[in-house]
Design a protein that fits this description.
It contains 23 helices and 15 strands. By secondary structure, it is an alpha/beta fold. β12 (286-291), α10 (299-308) and β13 (318-319) form a beta-alpha-beta unit.
Length: 627
């Protein structure tokens, strides 16, 4: 959960963007097309990302106009000028970035040297978009614990040097889409924030840092955005005989796997839901929402997810400068905050929520700021870290009053979403999936997995039809929906069995056996289906179909890369990744029907979903144990 602060304030925020603003039609002068498809990719990306101008610290001839450290130093000077203070009053420098001008020493040390700053504590936080927030959390904790009175946090990015046409010469000016993509997305910039426990209150207000929350899901997902690995992520640039060979192999190209991006927003919104449920965020109290999205294409994605959760923040409260400043990675949220404070008049009592998703290996960060009157009482300085919400937040029993929720399904969907988030994370960390994510999967592992899965899938339509026979009275329409679903899936096991055979499986269909987790899940579902009106089984369908629609699509590319089999060997996974979304739409209709008849059925649906998730995980856990 978030780390809360009682007496940490933002005294000032500054930024620096190098050179002139570069319009879309001027980009080729700085990062020229590398081959015949560059123009098409550029047109597509720019049409979607909504960026009109950006800044580069390189000249048209490719030469560097200022170093990365100098770029960060310019933002520091702007911040200190706004605060009317000097480096002599700062005792901690925390810097977040994807990397500086040198691989070592740390970027904070290089920035301290660039500034000619006096001796002080430093921290270099390496990451991508959330690296600046991680550095900010360290600085805030230093002030909260009484170790520092003023601390500087800086975030800076300078990717333009990697996008120059000359960088692609060792590859014969050839590039995969994932490396092409970011050339038209990222640009240069730096931002800085000065934290203090003794705010000046200039302008009649103080800006308090209420809390910071950063959560990484790197243990759940493969790498999404990276520099230093080959396209298949199997080999580090350090493993090549020489740097030139690493560059020729594409290991020094900055890449993003856009196929994993939907998972980033799924995870991030689930974290937001948890913050609301536990009282850290009250959506109706958010006056300004500073959202770092890398492309305007993702605005409706975020809006839609918030709406479905019933936790929307009105669009007129959103703030972004992506269109004019571009995507500057870790620096974006600091540049955004500085420009927001420059252009908006904030008032006491207002709350500012900042959201920073990071694609690197999937993480999300949030921070909440609150405006206070300059003469408002302040708590005493000293040790002040808290790990529980403020009393006002803790009295909120749920994010919604069910009577005023925009949809009758909202409370149930919120509970299921929270349950799903924990289940999804554990699935990704199960032995079989972790082996796949780590790049250690092979044909034998795939054959073992499908061989244990076939008999489980075979039972799906059987327990659903048992449930149909147990539904009576008002639930007849539900029985019809489930029967349709069972009919759709009754022969799916044969597709999976053929995949097993394509992987070299030789066991007859009837000789394949479920593992202990599969046996437990099967027994539970059949037993529940035999009870009168077993509407709780909708919770089981939520987990099972959700696995197919949300988890399987991310596994399929990994399997295809690692398992030397033809496309026909993955027909089951491909089919479910494409069709389970329609099944989930049918599920939503079924839930609405059930809650209309009996609103109390929501508890049974959640309880069954929880137990099904536990047993499905047991099935995943046993796959590697039985070979």
């Amino acid at each position: 959960m978030p780390t809360a602060f009682d007496r940490v304030y933002i005294e000032a925020a500054g930024f620096h963007l190098p050179g002139p603003a570069i319009a879309n039609d001027e980009m080729d002068v700085y990062i020229a097309p590398i081959n015949r498809i560059s123009g098409r990719i550029k047109a597509r990306i720019l049409a979607e990302n909504g960026i009109a101008t950006r800044h580069y610290a390189i000249a048209p001839d490719g030469s560097t106009t200022m170093s990365h450290a100098a770029l960060a130093a310019a933002a520091v000077r702007d911040c200190l000028n706004r605060a009317r203070t000097t480096l002599a009053d700062v005792s901690l420098l925390a810097v977040g970035s994807s990397g500086g001008d040198a691989l070592m020493p740390g970027f904070a040390s290089m920035l301290q040297g660039e500034l000619g700053a006096p001796p002080m504590s430093t921290l270099s936080s390496q990451g991508i978009c959330a690296a600046g927030v991680t550095a900010l959390a360290h600085a805030a904790q230093g002030i909260a614990l009484g170790g520092h009175r003023q601390a500087l946090t800086v975030a800076a990015e300078m990717p333009s040097r990697m996008f120059k046409q000359s960088r692609f010469a060792p590859r014969g000016y050839d590039s995969d889409f994932d490396a092409h993509f970011l050339r038209w997305m990222l640009s240069d910039g730096a931002g800085a924030v000065l934290l203090t426990d003794t705010p000046s209150g200039r302008g009649g207000v103080r800006l308090k840092l209420k809390w910071i929350h950063q959560q990484s899901f790197a243990g759940d997902y493969p790498v999404c955005m990276q520099l230093g690995l080959t396209e298949d992520r199997s080999t580090s640039f350090l493993d090549f005989p020489s740097c030139s060979e690493a560059e020729a192999a594409g290991a020094l190209s900055l890449r993003q796997d856009i196929r994993l991006l939907p998972h980033l927003f799924d995870v991030a919104i689930h974290e937001y839901v948890k913050l609301v449920e536990t009282g850290w965020v009250q959506p109706t109290r958010i006056d300004h929402f500073l959202c770092h999205y890398s492309s305007a294409k993702f605005i409706p994605v975020v809006e839609d997810l918030l709406y479905k959760a019933g936790l929307s923040i009105p669009r007129e409260r959103w703030y972004s400068n992506l269109t004019t400043r571009g995507n500057t990675g870790a620096a974006s949220i600091f540049v955004m905050l500085a420009e927001f404070l420059d252009t908006r008049a904030i008032k006491p009592g207002e709350q500012i929520l900042c959201f920073i998703p990071e694609s690197g290996r999937i993480s999300a960060a949030y921070m909440l700021l609150e405006v206070e009157a300059a003469d408002a009482p302040m708590p005493p300085a000293g040790r002040q870290l808290r790990d529980t919400p403020a009393p006002a937040g803790s009295t909120v029993a749920a994010p919604h009053d069910p009577a005023s929720a925009p949809e009758p399904l909202q409370p149930l969907l919120l509970q299921l979403a929270s349950l799903w988030q924990d289940y999804r994370s554990q699935v990704w960390r199960s032995p079989v999936i972790h082996k796949l994510v780590s790049g250690r999967f092979d044909v034998a592992a795939y054959r073992n997995w499908t061989g244990q899965w076939v008999p489980q899938v075979r039972e799906g339509s059987r327990w659903m039809r048992e449930a149909v026979a147990s539904l009576t009275g008002d639930y007849a329409p539900l029985a019809a929906l489930i029967e349709t679903h069972a009919s759709d899936e009754q022969n799916d096991f044969m597709i999976l069995y053929q995949d097993y055979q394509a992987a070299g499986g030789t066991q007859p269909l009837d000789a394949l056996r479920r593992n202990p987790g599969g046996e437990a899940l099967n027994a539970y579902l059949h037993a529940l289906a035999a009870t009168p009106n077993p509407v709780g089984l909708l919770g089981a369908i939520y987990i099972i179909e959700g696995t197919g629609q949300r988890i399987v699509p991310a596994l399929l590319p990994l399997l295809r890369r690692q398992v030397a089999l033809p496309p026909a060997a993955f027909r089951f996974l491909e089919y479910h990744g494409a069709n389970d979304e329609h099944h989930l739409a049918r599920w939503l209709l079924a839930v609405e029907l059930v809650l209309t008849i009996d609103p109390q059925a929501a508890a049974a649906i959640v309880a069954t979903a929880r137990r099904t998730a536990q047993l499905y995980l047991m099935q995943f856990d046993h796959i590697e144990a039985i070979a």
